[in-house]
Amino acid sequence: MAERVVLAYSGGLDTSVCIGWIAEQTGAEVIAVAVDVGQGGEDLDVIRQRALDCGAVEAEVADARDEFAADFCMPALQANALYMDRYPLVSALSRPVIVKHLIAAARKHGATTVGHGCTGKGNDQVRFEVGSAALAPEIKVVAPVRDMAMTRDKAIAFAEEKGLPIDVNKKSPYSIDQNVWGRAVETGYLEDIWNAPGEDVYDYTQDPTVQRDPDDVLITFEAGIPVAIDGVAVTPLQAIEQLNKRAGAQGVGRLDMVEDRLVGIKSREVYEAPGAIALITAHQELENVTVERDLARFKRQVDQRWGELAYDGLWFSPLKRALDAFVLDANSVVSGEIRLRLHGGRAVVTGRRSEASLYSFDLATYDEGDTFDQSLAKGFVELWGMPTRLAAARDERLKGSKGAK
Predict the structure, then answer these.
(1) What number does CATH give the domain 176-291+334-353?
(2) pTM of the complete model beyond 0.85
(3) DSSP assignment, residue 323?
(4) Which position among 4, 48, 124, 346 bears the catalytic label?
(5) CA distance 405 to 394
Protein backbone atom coordinates (compact mmCIF):
# COMPACT_ATOMS: atom_id res chain seq x y z
CA MET A 1 0.00 0.00 0.00
CA ALA A 2 1.21 3.49 -0.84
CA GLU A 3 2.32 5.83 1.92
CA ARG A 4 -0.52 7.98 3.21
CA VAL A 5 -0.48 11.59 4.44
CA VAL A 6 -3.34 13.08 6.45
CA LEU A 7 -3.59 16.78 5.65
CA ALA A 8 -5.28 19.46 7.78
CA TYR A 9 -7.54 20.92 5.10
CA SER A 10 -9.28 24.31 5.17
CA GLY A 11 -10.62 24.41 1.61
CA GLY A 12 -8.52 27.44 0.66
CA LEU A 13 -5.84 27.86 -2.00
CA ASP A 14 -2.79 26.75 -0.02
CA THR A 15 -4.16 23.53 1.44
CA SER A 16 -5.93 22.65 -1.83
CA VAL A 17 -2.64 22.96 -3.69
CA CYS A 18 -0.91 21.02 -0.89
CA ILE A 19 -2.92 17.91 -1.85
CA GLY A 20 -1.45 17.64 -5.34
CA TRP A 21 1.91 19.02 -4.29
CA ILE A 22 2.38 16.35 -1.60
CA ALA A 23 1.30 13.60 -4.00
CA GLU A 24 3.78 14.76 -6.65
CA GLN A 25 6.69 15.35 -4.29
CA THR A 26 6.32 12.23 -2.14
CA GLY A 27 4.19 9.81 -4.15
CA ALA A 28 1.90 9.46 -1.15
CA GLU A 29 -1.87 9.28 -1.09
CA VAL A 30 -3.43 12.29 0.60
CA ILE A 31 -6.39 12.14 2.97
CA ALA A 32 -7.90 15.56 3.69
CA VAL A 33 -9.38 16.31 7.11
CA ALA A 34 -11.51 19.42 7.63
CA VAL A 35 -12.65 20.33 11.14
CA ASP A 36 -15.53 22.67 11.92
CA VAL A 37 -14.71 24.74 15.01
CA GLY A 38 -17.40 27.33 14.34
CA GLN A 39 -15.50 29.25 11.67
CA GLY A 40 -18.57 29.62 9.45
CA GLY A 41 -18.06 30.11 5.73
CA GLU A 42 -18.51 27.27 3.28
CA ASP A 43 -20.52 24.13 3.93
CA LEU A 44 -18.38 21.19 5.05
CA ASP A 45 -19.76 18.98 2.28
CA VAL A 46 -18.62 21.55 -0.29
CA ILE A 47 -15.15 21.57 1.29
CA ARG A 48 -15.07 17.76 1.30
CA GLN A 49 -15.92 17.56 -2.39
CA ARG A 50 -13.29 20.18 -3.24
CA ALA A 51 -10.65 18.10 -1.50
CA LEU A 52 -11.62 15.07 -3.58
CA ASP A 53 -11.64 17.18 -6.76
CA CYS A 54 -8.14 18.40 -5.90
CA GLY A 55 -6.83 14.84 -5.74
CA ALA A 56 -7.40 13.57 -2.21
CA VAL A 57 -8.08 9.81 -2.13
CA GLU A 58 -10.40 10.38 0.81
CA ALA A 59 -11.78 13.39 2.64
CA GLU A 60 -13.24 13.56 6.12
CA VAL A 61 -15.16 16.38 7.73
CA ALA A 62 -15.74 16.66 11.48
CA ASP A 63 -18.26 18.85 13.27
CA ALA A 64 -16.20 19.63 16.37
CA ARG A 65 -18.05 22.75 17.49
CA ASP A 66 -19.44 21.32 20.73
CA GLU A 67 -16.16 19.53 21.48
CA PHE A 68 -14.18 22.70 20.84
CA ALA A 69 -16.45 24.81 23.05
CA ALA A 70 -16.63 22.33 25.94
CA ASP A 71 -13.13 20.83 25.98
CA PHE A 72 -11.00 23.73 24.80
CA CYS A 73 -12.81 27.07 25.24
CA MET A 74 -14.19 26.24 28.70
CA PRO A 75 -10.79 25.32 30.20
CA ALA A 76 -9.48 28.59 28.76
CA LEU A 77 -12.37 30.43 30.42
CA GLN A 78 -11.70 28.75 33.77
CA ALA A 79 -8.07 29.87 33.43
CA ASN A 80 -9.07 33.41 32.36
CA ALA A 81 -6.63 32.80 29.52
CA LEU A 82 -5.46 36.10 28.04
CA TYR A 83 -2.03 36.00 26.37
CA MET A 84 -0.11 39.18 27.16
CA ASP A 85 -3.11 40.04 29.38
CA ARG A 86 -5.24 40.75 26.29
CA TYR A 87 -5.53 38.03 23.64
CA PRO A 88 -8.06 35.25 24.40
CA LEU A 89 -6.20 32.59 22.41
CA VAL A 90 -8.49 32.44 19.38
CA SER A 91 -6.31 30.44 16.97
CA ALA A 92 -4.23 28.80 19.69
CA LEU A 93 -7.26 26.99 21.11
CA SER A 94 -8.48 25.57 17.79
CA ARG A 95 -5.20 23.95 16.76
CA PRO A 96 -5.08 21.18 19.40
CA VAL A 97 -8.63 20.03 18.58
CA ILE A 98 -7.70 19.91 14.88
CA VAL A 99 -4.57 17.94 15.80
CA LYS A 100 -6.70 15.44 17.74
CA HIS A 101 -8.79 14.77 14.65
CA LEU A 102 -5.71 14.63 12.41
CA ILE A 103 -4.06 11.97 14.55
CA ALA A 104 -7.30 10.00 14.85
CA ALA A 105 -7.62 10.01 11.05
CA ALA A 106 -3.96 9.02 10.64
CA ARG A 107 -4.46 5.97 12.84
CA LYS A 108 -7.74 5.09 11.14
CA HIS A 109 -6.21 5.20 7.65
CA GLY A 110 -2.80 3.81 8.51
CA ALA A 111 -1.01 7.04 7.64
CA THR A 112 2.58 7.60 8.71
CA THR A 113 2.59 11.37 8.15
CA VAL A 114 0.40 14.38 8.86
CA GLY A 115 0.57 17.63 6.92
CA HIS A 116 -0.35 21.27 7.39
CA GLY A 117 -0.28 24.46 5.33
CA CYS A 118 1.45 26.75 7.83
CA THR A 119 4.33 29.09 7.02
CA GLY A 120 7.64 29.20 8.87
CA LYS A 121 6.92 32.62 10.41
CA GLY A 122 3.88 31.80 12.50
CA ASN A 123 2.90 30.00 15.67
CA ASP A 124 0.63 27.41 14.07
CA GLN A 125 3.45 25.26 12.68
CA VAL A 126 4.57 24.70 16.28
CA ARG A 127 1.06 23.97 17.49
CA PHE A 128 0.43 21.38 14.78
CA GLU A 129 3.78 19.65 15.00
CA VAL A 130 4.35 19.64 18.76
CA GLY A 131 0.73 18.62 19.30
CA SER A 132 1.11 15.77 16.82
CA ALA A 133 4.33 14.64 18.50
CA ALA A 134 2.58 14.61 21.89
CA LEU A 135 -0.30 12.44 20.68
CA ALA A 136 1.67 10.23 18.26
CA PRO A 137 5.46 10.49 18.80
CA GLU A 138 6.12 8.19 15.85
CA ILE A 139 4.26 10.35 13.34
CA LYS A 140 6.13 12.38 10.69
CA VAL A 141 5.14 15.84 9.48
CA VAL A 142 5.19 17.48 6.05
CA ALA A 143 4.71 21.24 5.67
CA PRO A 144 4.78 22.17 1.94
CA VAL A 145 4.21 25.92 2.33
CA ARG A 146 7.19 26.15 4.69
CA ASP A 147 9.51 23.35 3.59
CA MET A 148 8.95 23.43 -0.17
CA ALA A 149 8.98 27.24 -0.52
CA MET A 150 5.40 27.33 -1.77
CA THR A 151 4.83 31.04 -2.41
CA ARG A 152 1.38 32.31 -3.34
CA ASP A 153 2.50 32.81 -6.95
CA LYS A 154 3.71 29.21 -7.10
CA ALA A 155 0.47 27.99 -5.57
CA ILE A 156 -1.63 29.91 -8.11
CA ALA A 157 0.50 28.62 -11.00
CA PHE A 158 0.15 25.04 -9.73
CA ALA A 159 -3.64 25.40 -9.32
CA GLU A 160 -4.01 26.78 -12.84
CA GLU A 161 -1.74 24.15 -14.36
CA LYS A 162 -3.69 21.31 -12.72
CA GLY A 163 -7.09 22.91 -13.27
CA LEU A 164 -7.94 22.82 -9.57
CA PRO A 165 -11.44 24.07 -8.64
CA ILE A 166 -10.10 27.06 -6.72
CA ASP A 167 -10.92 30.75 -7.28
CA VAL A 168 -7.35 32.04 -7.32
CA ASN A 169 -8.32 35.58 -8.28
CA LYS A 170 -10.28 36.28 -5.11
CA LYS A 171 -7.71 37.72 -2.72
CA SER A 172 -8.58 39.38 0.56
CA PRO A 173 -6.12 42.05 1.69
CA TYR A 174 -6.07 40.27 5.04
CA SER A 175 -5.14 36.90 6.45
CA ILE A 176 -8.10 35.77 8.56
CA ASP A 177 -8.55 32.90 10.99
CA GLN A 178 -11.77 32.52 12.90
CA ASN A 179 -13.76 30.16 15.06
CA VAL A 180 -16.57 30.41 17.59
CA TRP A 181 -14.19 31.80 20.26
CA GLY A 182 -13.10 34.73 18.10
CA ARG A 183 -11.56 36.10 14.92
CA ALA A 184 -7.96 37.03 14.06
CA VAL A 185 -7.00 39.43 11.25
CA GLU A 186 -3.50 40.32 10.05
CA THR A 187 -1.37 41.35 7.03
CA GLY A 188 -2.24 43.91 4.37
CA TYR A 189 -2.07 47.54 5.45
CA LEU A 190 -2.27 46.37 9.08
CA GLU A 191 1.43 45.43 8.86
CA ASP A 192 2.18 49.15 9.19
CA ILE A 193 1.53 49.48 12.91
CA TRP A 194 0.75 53.20 12.54
CA ASN A 195 -2.30 52.45 10.39
CA ALA A 196 -5.61 52.30 12.23
CA PRO A 197 -7.89 49.39 11.32
CA GLY A 198 -10.95 50.40 9.31
CA GLU A 199 -14.44 49.05 9.87
CA ASP A 200 -13.95 46.62 6.95
CA VAL A 201 -11.58 44.63 9.18
CA TYR A 202 -14.37 43.62 11.54
CA ASP A 203 -17.11 41.04 11.15
CA TYR A 204 -18.04 39.70 14.59
CA THR A 205 -18.51 43.18 16.12
CA GLN A 206 -20.39 46.36 15.34
CA ASP A 207 -18.90 49.86 15.60
CA PRO A 208 -18.88 50.60 19.36
CA THR A 209 -19.13 54.37 18.77
CA VAL A 210 -22.65 54.09 17.29
CA GLN A 211 -25.29 54.97 19.87
CA ARG A 212 -27.35 51.97 21.03
CA ASP A 213 -29.36 51.08 24.09
CA PRO A 214 -27.32 49.02 26.58
CA ASP A 215 -27.91 45.28 26.86
CA ASP A 216 -28.02 43.74 30.34
CA VAL A 217 -27.30 40.01 30.43
CA LEU A 218 -27.37 37.57 33.37
CA ILE A 219 -24.84 34.71 33.19
CA THR A 220 -25.14 31.72 35.54
CA PHE A 221 -21.99 29.70 36.25
CA GLU A 222 -21.46 26.30 37.81
CA ALA A 223 -17.85 25.44 38.74
CA GLY A 224 -16.62 28.16 36.37
CA ILE A 225 -18.72 27.04 33.38
CA PRO A 226 -21.65 29.11 32.01
CA VAL A 227 -24.82 27.02 32.26
CA ALA A 228 -27.56 29.61 31.69
CA ILE A 229 -28.09 32.98 29.99
CA ASP A 230 -30.90 35.12 31.42
CA GLY A 231 -32.15 32.04 33.27
CA VAL A 232 -32.35 29.81 30.19
CA ALA A 233 -30.10 26.73 30.20
CA VAL A 234 -27.32 26.71 27.58
CA THR A 235 -24.51 24.44 26.48
CA PRO A 236 -20.99 25.91 26.36
CA LEU A 237 -21.33 26.35 22.59
CA GLN A 238 -24.68 28.11 22.94
CA ALA A 239 -23.31 30.40 25.65
CA ILE A 240 -20.46 31.51 23.40
CA GLU A 241 -22.69 31.90 20.34
CA GLN A 242 -25.31 33.94 22.18
CA LEU A 243 -22.74 36.25 23.73
CA ASN A 244 -20.93 36.61 20.41
CA LYS A 245 -24.18 37.97 19.01
CA ARG A 246 -25.18 40.18 21.93
CA ALA A 247 -21.73 41.47 22.94
CA GLY A 248 -20.74 41.77 19.27
CA ALA A 249 -23.76 43.99 18.61
CA GLN A 250 -22.37 46.36 21.27
CA GLY A 251 -18.84 46.38 19.84
CA VAL A 252 -17.40 44.39 22.76
CA GLY A 253 -14.20 42.40 22.24
CA ARG A 254 -12.16 44.42 19.73
CA LEU A 255 -8.38 44.19 20.24
CA ASP A 256 -5.55 45.79 18.28
CA MET A 257 -2.14 44.72 19.57
CA VAL A 258 1.49 44.09 18.74
CA GLU A 259 2.02 40.53 19.88
CA ASP A 260 5.11 38.50 20.77
CA ARG A 261 5.05 35.45 18.53
CA LEU A 262 6.61 32.21 19.65
CA VAL A 263 9.13 32.31 16.78
CA GLY A 264 10.62 35.51 18.16
CA ILE A 265 9.12 38.24 15.98
CA LYS A 266 6.55 40.86 16.89
CA SER A 267 3.36 40.82 14.86
CA ARG A 268 0.46 43.26 14.63
CA GLU A 269 -2.82 41.43 15.16
CA VAL A 270 -6.41 42.63 15.21
CA TYR A 271 -8.80 40.41 17.12
CA GLU A 272 -12.49 40.42 17.87
CA ALA A 273 -13.79 38.04 20.50
CA PRO A 274 -17.05 39.42 21.90
CA GLY A 275 -18.30 36.23 23.58
CA ALA A 276 -14.90 35.31 24.97
CA ILE A 277 -14.23 38.74 26.47
CA ALA A 278 -17.72 38.96 27.98
CA LEU A 279 -17.44 35.50 29.53
CA ILE A 280 -13.91 36.03 30.88
CA THR A 281 -14.95 39.39 32.38
CA ALA A 282 -17.88 37.72 34.16
CA HIS A 283 -15.85 34.71 35.25
CA GLN A 284 -13.05 36.83 36.72
CA GLU A 285 -15.55 38.78 38.80
CA LEU A 286 -17.25 35.65 40.10
CA GLU A 287 -13.82 34.36 41.13
CA ASN A 288 -13.30 37.64 43.02
CA VAL A 289 -16.44 36.85 45.02
CA THR A 290 -15.87 33.14 45.67
CA VAL A 291 -12.14 32.33 45.69
CA GLU A 292 -10.07 32.76 48.86
CA ARG A 293 -7.40 35.47 48.71
CA ASP A 294 -4.18 33.41 48.66
CA LEU A 295 -5.63 30.90 46.19
CA ALA A 296 -6.77 33.79 43.98
CA ARG A 297 -3.32 35.39 44.07
CA PHE A 298 -1.58 32.17 43.11
CA LYS A 299 -4.17 31.35 40.47
CA ARG A 300 -3.42 34.60 38.65
CA GLN A 301 0.15 33.34 38.17
CA VAL A 302 -1.14 29.94 37.04
CA ASP A 303 -3.59 31.58 34.63
CA GLN A 304 -0.79 33.52 32.95
CA ARG A 305 1.42 30.44 32.60
CA TRP A 306 -1.53 28.36 31.36
CA GLY A 307 -2.21 30.91 28.63
CA GLU A 308 1.43 30.97 27.60
CA LEU A 309 1.54 27.17 27.33
CA ALA A 310 -1.59 27.12 25.18
CA TYR A 311 -0.25 29.93 23.00
CA ASP A 312 3.13 28.22 22.63
CA GLY A 313 1.65 24.99 21.28
CA LEU A 314 2.10 23.00 24.50
CA TRP A 315 -1.55 22.08 25.04
CA PHE A 316 -0.69 18.41 25.53
CA SER A 317 2.41 19.00 27.67
CA PRO A 318 2.90 17.57 31.20
CA LEU A 319 2.96 21.06 32.77
CA LYS A 320 -0.26 22.10 31.03
CA ARG A 321 -1.91 18.87 32.19
CA ALA A 322 -0.82 19.50 35.78
CA LEU A 323 -2.03 23.11 35.70
CA ASP A 324 -5.37 21.90 34.33
CA ALA A 325 -5.90 19.99 37.56
CA PHE A 326 -5.16 23.10 39.64
CA VAL A 327 -7.46 25.31 37.57
CA LEU A 328 -10.26 22.76 37.76
CA ASP A 329 -9.98 22.49 41.55
CA ALA A 330 -9.81 26.27 42.00
CA ASN A 331 -13.05 26.59 39.99
CA SER A 332 -14.96 24.11 42.16
CA VAL A 333 -16.56 26.98 44.13
CA VAL A 334 -16.97 29.42 41.22
CA SER A 335 -20.73 29.15 41.00
CA GLY A 336 -23.29 31.92 40.96
CA GLU A 337 -24.64 34.71 38.78
CA ILE A 338 -23.04 37.75 37.21
CA ARG A 339 -24.96 40.61 35.60
CA LEU A 340 -23.13 42.33 32.76
CA ARG A 341 -24.00 45.53 30.97
CA LEU A 342 -22.89 45.38 27.34
CA HIS A 343 -22.57 48.87 25.90
CA GLY A 344 -20.17 51.10 23.99
CA GLY A 345 -17.60 48.41 23.37
CA ARG A 346 -17.37 47.38 27.02
CA ALA A 347 -18.68 44.54 29.17
CA VAL A 348 -19.11 45.94 32.69
CA VAL A 349 -20.11 43.91 35.73
CA THR A 350 -23.09 45.51 37.49
CA GLY A 351 -24.12 42.73 39.87
CA ARG A 352 -22.91 39.49 41.41
CA ARG A 353 -24.43 36.86 43.71
CA SER A 354 -23.38 33.42 44.85
CA GLU A 355 -24.15 30.93 47.60
CA ALA A 356 -20.38 30.31 47.68
CA SER A 357 -19.66 34.01 48.23
CA LEU A 358 -16.91 34.99 50.66
CA TYR A 359 -18.20 38.57 50.74
CA SER A 360 -19.79 39.43 54.09
CA PHE A 361 -21.94 42.55 54.20
CA ASP A 362 -21.71 42.61 57.99
CA LEU A 363 -17.91 42.66 57.88
CA ALA A 364 -17.66 45.09 54.96
CA THR A 365 -20.21 47.71 56.02
CA TYR A 366 -19.23 50.95 57.73
CA ASP A 367 -22.78 51.49 58.91
CA GLU A 368 -24.93 49.98 61.66
CA GLY A 369 -24.58 46.22 61.88
CA ASP A 370 -20.80 46.25 61.44
CA THR A 371 -19.42 43.05 63.03
CA PHE A 372 -15.75 43.78 62.32
CA ASP A 373 -13.85 44.17 65.63
CA GLN A 374 -11.66 47.18 64.91
CA SER A 375 -9.90 46.84 68.26
CA LEU A 376 -8.03 43.85 66.81
CA ALA A 377 -6.55 45.91 63.99
CA LYS A 378 -3.91 47.78 66.05
CA GLY A 379 -2.12 44.61 67.10
CA PHE A 380 -2.44 43.13 63.61
CA VAL A 381 -0.80 46.17 62.04
CA GLU A 382 1.99 46.11 64.63
CA LEU A 383 2.82 42.46 63.92
CA TRP A 384 2.39 42.78 60.16
CA GLY A 385 4.75 45.74 59.99
CA MET A 386 7.34 44.34 62.40
CA PRO A 387 9.70 42.86 59.75
CA THR A 388 9.67 46.12 57.79
CA ARG A 389 10.28 48.19 60.93
CA LEU A 390 13.17 45.95 62.06
CA ALA A 391 14.77 46.07 58.62
CA ALA A 392 14.47 49.86 58.46
CA ALA A 393 16.05 50.21 61.92
CA ARG A 394 18.87 47.86 60.87
CA ASP A 395 19.54 49.92 57.73
CA GLU A 396 19.67 53.15 59.72
CA ARG A 397 22.05 51.57 62.21
CA LEU A 398 24.41 50.33 59.49
CA LYS A 399 24.27 53.67 57.70
CA GLY A 400 25.22 55.41 60.95
CA SER A 401 28.16 53.07 61.62
CA LYS A 402 29.53 53.64 58.12
CA GLY A 403 29.25 57.40 58.61
CA ALA A 404 31.20 57.18 61.87
CA LYS A 405 34.13 55.60 60.05
Answers:
(1) 3.90.1260.10
(2) yes
(3) H
(4) 124
(5) 17
